[in-house]
Amino acid sequence: MNIYRLAVLSDNYVFVLHDPVSNNAAVVDPAVPEPVLAKIEELGATLVAIFNTHHHGDHVGGNKALIEKFPKAIVYGGEKDRDRIPHQQVFLKGGDRVTFGDREAQVFFVPGHTYAHIAYYFEPSGDQGGELFCGDTLFAGGCGRLFEGTPAEMLASLSQLRQLPDDTRVWCAHEYTLGNLKFALTVDQDNLDLQERMTTATAMRQRGESTVPTTIGLEKRTNPFMRWDFPAIQRSAGIEIPDRVFARIRGQKDNFAG
After folding, report:
1. Region at 101 (left for phi over 0; alpha for psi -120 to 50; beta for the rest)
2. CA–CA separation, 211 vs 206, rounded Å?
3. Tens digit of pLDDT for each residue in 20-75?
4. NCBIfam families this protein is in (predicted)?
């Protein structure tokens, strides 16, 4: 399975998956249709699946036009997003599995950003490692805002993702990394891995490079929202109870002007 990252809108990423054996394609969270259609035409492929993580317009805005072009494509989304995702046909819950080409993905129910959010984890196969498409739940250096969920729900969601292998690639849906890392340094300033990551990410962005994908291992070392039970984060929050630590730093991030 080949993965193509398409930068769209101001800071969104859309991911086109391509199975070279069948020459079929899938897309994750198509914000807009045009770049997706262009990539599929370039590949000479057929779109067979749309994998949506949640209902926000910058993740499902391309569904209608893509289905008009490829009416046999199947639209996947969370079962609790019924009637919120255009053309949704399959309603997934945590523990379900989906397939694309020769790869199988486990579905994670990860509420917090929205009450219906899901993620797709394509498990390692052969010489290919795991691939996580997590929408707006986990970001490089951060996590999504809590529009419809609670801190406890988001903590439980990230706890699931934190259990994935460290080499799992994380394909998050926005280029928010520099802002996230600036905040991270305010609550974990002595973290040498984080300091190094900030330097690296800054240089990448100056060169016009994407910081996505990241990895689960890197997030565990540098992302405060994956480190709620680390002493440095607890000291910064002034409390040790995990869900209250998480709630406090999420609130601080919401008000961070950096």
Report:
1. left
2. 11
3. 999 999 999 999 999 999 999 999 999 999 999 999 999 999 999 999 999 999 99
4. GSH_gloB (TIGR03413)
54 is catalytic: yes
- List, in sequence order, every residue forming a beta bridge with 132; answer none if it has no partner: 121, 170
Helix, strand, coil share of the chain (percent; to 5): 35, 25, 40
Is 87 catalytic? The answer is: no
Tokens of 159: 């706890």
Cα 67 to Cα 3: distance, rounded to the nearest angstrom: 21
Q: Please state, in angstroms and rounded to a whole number, the distance separating the CA atoms of residues 201 and 199.
A: 6
pTM of the predicted model, to two decimals?
Answer: 0.95
Return d(Cα 66, Cα 162) in angstroms, integer: 33
136 assigned binding-site residue: yes
Q: What is the pLDDT of residues 117-137, one digit of tens each?
A: 999 999 998 888 899 999 999
In single-letter form, the type of residue at position 133 comes to F
Of 56, 81, 117, 188, catalytic = 56
Q: Is 58 a catalytic residue?
A: yes
